[in-house]
Amino acid sequence: MACPDGCFTLNQTLSIALYFTVIGFKFLLFSYFLLIRFRKTKRMYWLYFSLFFIFLAASRVFYLMYDFFFGVDDKNVAWRFANTAGWLSVAMLSGILSTLLFTGDSKLHQIIKKVFPLVPVGIAVFILFFPDIWINDPAGFFGWGGGKLVLNVAILPIYIVLLPFMFFYLAKKSAGTLQRSFLLNGIGLFLYYVVRAVQPVLAGMTGSGTAMMMPPLLILLAILVITFANQYESLK
Predict the structure, then answer these.
(1) I need a surface site. Which of 59, 67, 103, 217 has the fewest CB within 10 A?
(2) Burial class (CB in 10 A: 0-12, 13-18, 19+), 43
C-alpha cells in the first residue's frame, strides 16, 4: 500500500496515525485491566481481558507492518504473526466466556471450561506452521492460499457470530447493569470482528480515504463500547 518511492500519501499517513492510536489504546486497556482490575480482585475474568487486549495490540502491530511497511518477501511473516496473535486474543475471549458460562462443578463443565479456550490456541499454533503457499497462492481465490481462505471465509465468520452471541445470551439471562454490560460487550465485539472481516476488501480500495480511515475509526468505536461495558461496578 505504500507508494513506490517509500513515501506515504496523506490518506495513508492519517490511516497509520489512527492505527497507532488504536494500538496505544489497546495497550492502555491491557495495563488497566491487569494492574488495576486483576491486581485488586484476582479474578481470572480481568486477567483474560488484559491479555485479550495485549494480543489484539500485537496483532495490529504486525498488520500495520503488513499493510504499510513490509515488502513482498516479508508479508507472509507479518501475516503469520498477526493472525497468531489475533487467534490468541480469541482464546483469551473464549476464556472469559468459559468462566461466565460454565460455572457448575460438574466434570463436564470443568472440561469444557478448559477445552473451550484451547481451540483458538490450536488454530494460532497451526498458523505458525502454515506453508507460505497456504497464505498467498497467485492461482488461488483473490490470491489467497488454502489456509488463509479457510480462516477468513469459514472459521472467522463462525467466531464473528458465536462470541458476540454468547454475550447476548448472557445478557438475556441477566438483569440490571450486568445485563447492559453483557449486551454492550456483545455489540462491541460484533462490530470489531465485522470490521476485521471486511478490512481486506476495504484495503484494496487504496484510492479512497474513507475506505482507509473507516476501519481504524470503527475499531476505536468498538473498543470504546467494550471498555464502557466493563466499567460497571457489578463486574468488579
Answers:
(1) 103
(2) middle
